[in-house]
Task: structure prediction
Amino acid sequence: MINNTYTCPLCGSKTEDYFVSMNRDLECTTDIRCANKNCFFSSNYVPFRIWMHIEDVKKNEIMLQRENRMLSESIDKMALKPNQEIIEWHQHPLYPETSRCCIVECTDNCFYVAHYSYVDGWLNSFTCEQLSNVKSWAYLPIGVTND
Result:
């Protein structure tokens, strides 16, 4: 793999300072040194395989950063639609002002769908059992469409 110039994977400088060796009638680059005097690779010759490995790692890092940025942007677009409610948590002993269904977190860190009644307190919406260990609650979003 003989090139006229190589790009340093650390600083991006072009260099023509390298050793070439003959292996079974095949020329290949074995050691490279960066031309940039401020670069770490300028003081010694670096084996070509390490130079290429660092270059591959840098390329993968750039590709992963690009993918991460694209994923973040798509998550941001999906996170809050214009017609979507933000779930706002309330700490016990505050109670809901309406009889809407709520997400309830209990002190055992379990979550339930429940509603609050001034007469019966918190009732599990599926089993109608009373929940006495409520830690926090939030209104269940209503009227949300994900278009």
